[in-house]
TrEMBL record:
InterPro entries found in the cross-reference section: Dni1/Fig1 (IPR033481)
Name listed for the protein in its UniProt record: Uncharacterized protein
Coiled-coil portions: none
Transmembrane spans: 95-116, 137-159, 189-215
Any Gene Ontology biological process: conjugation with cellular fusion
The organism of origin for this protein: Ascochyta lentis
UniProt KW keywords: Membrane, Transmembrane, Transmembrane helix
Any single Gene Ontology cellular-component annotation: mating projection tip
Pfam families: Fig1 (PF12351)
Amino acid sequence: MTNIYILGLSYTNSTPSNLSPTGKNLSATLNGYKGTSQLDVRTGYFGLCIRQRGIVWLCSSDANGLTQQIGAENDPLNLIGAASEFKDNVLFSDLLFMAIVLAFLSILLLATFPGWHEESNGSTGSMVDVKPFPSRTVSRVALTFSSVATVLLLIAGLWQHVGSVGAAAMAGMANYGNVKTDIGAGAVAMAWIGFTLTTLVSVGLLVMILSIMALDRLAE
């Protein structure tokens, strides 16, 4: 999780130049309250990882346990609590699990498709390689599974992206430059790679089904 994460929070000392006088006063107040704290917090679907003063990462699904390990005084702006709230109330992993199950079922159905085998040519008597068409019912069920998985992955990817971007913006604004936020590129890439792969499978199955239907019409 230290490299594959959705949202990262850490303390920083930058002050935005576009702040109003009141905002600058609030930024200075929070900076004084923060002191010299150095803490990195990264969150994913199933837990948090923290690193104090760039030394060792500690990971757990229990935010309170992580806070006790480093001491609440080392997290004055409660970054661990904010990351935990984001994980519990914004992230939603059930869509990913449903998509994975449907994609796995689709792969199992694809594995039942007939492969190449040799048959005797009735006119010449020679052996030729043939590949029968797969079952229409199995093809359509596999297409349904992969299509639903694609939609679920699209929703999950958008949910993850919009949620993390919104949370990052709010955390940065609410702390007036005392908290640095970043979006995990690895998690973003994995979400959209999964969506792309299931899309390719769905398109391939659809093209195959339509091609078989067209050949059947030509053969009639």
